[in-house]
Amino acid sequence: MLGPHASQQSHESRSFPMRRGAFGLTTAILSSVLVLSGLEASPASASTTTYTMPATGKVTLSGHGYGHGHGMSQYGAQGAATGNWGTRGKTPLTWQQIVAFYYPGTKQATFAQTIRVKISADTSADVVIEARSKLQVLDVATGTFRSLPRNGATRWRLTPAAGGQTAVAYLIGTTWTTWLTLAGDAAFTAQGEPMRLFYDAGSRQYRGRLYSSRPSATSTDRDTINQLSLEDYLRGVVPSEMPASWNVNAVSAQAVAARTYAAYELQHPLAAYYDICDTSSCQVYGGYDAEWPNSNNAIDATKGVILSYGGKPAFTQFSASSGGWTSAGDASMPYLSSKSDPYDDVRYPDGTSANSHHSWTVAVNVADIEKKTGIGDIAKATVLMNDNHHVSKITFIGTKGRTYTVYGDTFRSWFGLKSTYFAITGRPTTTA
């Protein structure tokens, strides 16, 4: 999602495409609707400001941050870990101190389990993998494993067959031959070694098992599900969400946040046959091919560690950049608090800003706002901020008395803003 190489926003809400809040690390996030609709901040510190809108031309929005702002700022984690934030030269924080700052009130706990990930890139009904040693097929109904022969095949495939059966076939040259038909669902495994999965856009390697799973007992379609240990899953998540080259304490904090987020999802699975997705709507997961030694080391160094609240895994959302002020989550999650975040102003050793998302400006055409609202010429805009920083709602007042209220998240998606932490540049007419 951001300066580095990953995928944007990581944990937004189930009612929006983005749940996590991850990082601005890659461009994927920009295209998502970025807000946590179901987890709005508490209005306890709400304030309103009314601005006079120009009749024509543009209004300038002065903003901060990238993502929903809940929980950990990934740039902030890097700033805290290096000590290079603000005026620089501060005492670096450990990963334990970083997660304690961003998720106050949580406690460390341990967690180990397998997780089922829906592979979004594989949109076909079959599961096709590269032939390799140690391959087995699992008959899900009986729990029986059968070793696949080394017979000159280049690929193996699981294909839906009549009556909910699964055909196991192999490819030699250009000809597919059925080797076995199983009564129900099936999975491939290479006994702990990675397998290369082929799909329309290319291929990627995955650890664990690759299932051909029916969404329901009567479904004729299949989805590809990757089941593997939580620790192996993280190896494909952490470097997809944060540059593995970053400070080890920042990457370790990301590992703990990602592990905890996955643990939370395991207790709130997305479907009966899988727990989590592999996109920025959940956490970006790149499988075995995404792994890096540095992030693997950080995962191993924090093995099993999660953050708990009330004896359960916390909903550890994170985003690329808080812009200097984190956003509160649902009232039941007080560890997602609204507060100043000085670490987000991360600096390079020479003192220049290393976070291009910390502060930004966007010019929006008044005519485009009028077109979206449909109320004609706009005279004023009243902005409600739920924590004196993040826009909760904007009410536009037309010259003919008509009004239109839009949520800050929706306004953000209208104009591709990086966050809801923004203000209209100009002198307000009233403030309350």
Question: Explain this structure to me?
Answer:
With 432 residues, the chain is of the alpha+beta class. The protein folds into three domains: 28-68 and 357-431, no CATH class; 73-112 and 237-344, no CATH class; 126-221, no CATH class. The protein is built from seven helices and 28 strands. The chain has helices at 74-82, 95-102, 230-241, 248-266, 293-301, 366-373, 408-415, and strands at 11-12, 19-20, 47-52, 58-63, 72-73, 107-110, 114-118, 127-130, 136-139, 144-147, 155-161, 165-172, 175-182, 186-189, 195-199, 202-206, 209-213, 223-229, 276-277, 305-309, 312-313, 318-319, 360-365, 378-385, 391-398, 403-407, 422-424, 428-431. The strands form seven sheets. The protein has a seven-stranded mixed sheet with strand order 10-9-14-17-18-7-19. Strand 24 (378-385) and strand 25 (391-398) form a beta hairpin. The model is unreliable at 1-43 (pLDDT under 50).
Using the CA coordinates, give the radius of gyration: 24 Å
Mean pLDDT, all residues: 89
Strand content: 25-35%
Per DSSP E runs of 2 or more residues, the count of β-strands stands at 28
* Helical/strand content category: alpha+beta
Total helices: the number is 7
- Write out the strand line-up for the largest beta sheet, numbering strands in chain order: 10-9-14-17-18-7-19
Helix content: 10-25%
Number of domains: 3
- The best one-word shape is globular
Q: What assembly state would you assign to the polypeptide chains in this entry?
A: single chain
